[in-house]
Amino acid sequence: MSARVREPDQRLLDAAQDYIALHEQKANANERRARLATILLTATTASIPVLIVASTTTHEFLLGKLLPSVMAGVAAMIAALTQVERPHDRWALYRRTQRVWEAERFCYLHAEGAYSGPDADARFVRWMADARVATHDEWAGLLPRASDVAKLSSRDAAG
Length: 159
Fold this sequence. Notes:
- The chain has 159 residues and is mainly α.
- The protein has one domain (10-158).
- The chain has 5 helices and no strands.
- The chain has helices at 10-54, 60-85, 87-109, 120-140, 146-158.
- The chain is elongated and about 80 Å long.
- The N and C termini lie far apart (62 Å).
């Protein structure tokens, strides 16, 4: 480990920790959304053949037509929302951002690498600014575009 020239700036450490905590919360929320979407999509699609088989013994219309149709519609809505919102991709982005910031904060705290010299604070500030922009740029690529939503709407209407 390098000998620290001076103590790290607590304000910078706090700012980094706040950003880490924010992205941890976002990652956790998107993880829950992704898992819920997967479970609901699996459950709704798996229930359709079970309902159809059950309709052969009782409640033919309800179990054989109405509920399978509702389940298929719910599954289509979940799939479309998941495709547009991309919670799996957001989960990965936010978790990766959290881990990268944790690692960089650790290097700054322990005066490693680029942070071993007298300009460690300035280097860390520059890294944080650049990393925020990079995260935003990657996040912006995950936003649904109007054309994506229109494609889903026209596909659902057509088919």
